[in-house]
Here is the input.
Amino acid sequence: METVRYCLECGEPLHGRADKKFCSDQCRTAYHNRLHAATNQYIRQINSILRKNRNILAKLNPSGKAKVTKEQLLSRGFNFNYHTNIYETRNGSRYFFCYDMGYLPLDNGMYFLVHRQEYIG
Ligand SMILES: [Zn+2]
Here is the structure.
């Protein structure tokens, strides 16, 4: 028994090949355009958060090494949910990086800020 499939864009029933997903080229194009628009917007939002994080770290760390409070980061709009990568030292310290600027959470609610060049050759 054949299951009825529907166009992913307009919902019309599909006829023909079993792997068909759209009733027409127009529907295929419209669907992918919409998908890409949403994806691109999402990527732009994440990029902008990462850039902002990076700039906050750079501002607070003009010399390449600094110690700051969580409040200093949060009050500038730092978003701890986003980073580009993690660098773990041999002794188990985990630095979170936003591009070239990184931070290491310390025990006392402080953060040690670093610039990547000092750690990765
Ligand atoms: Zn369609």
Notes: Residues 25-118 form one domain. The chain has a mean pLDDT of 92.
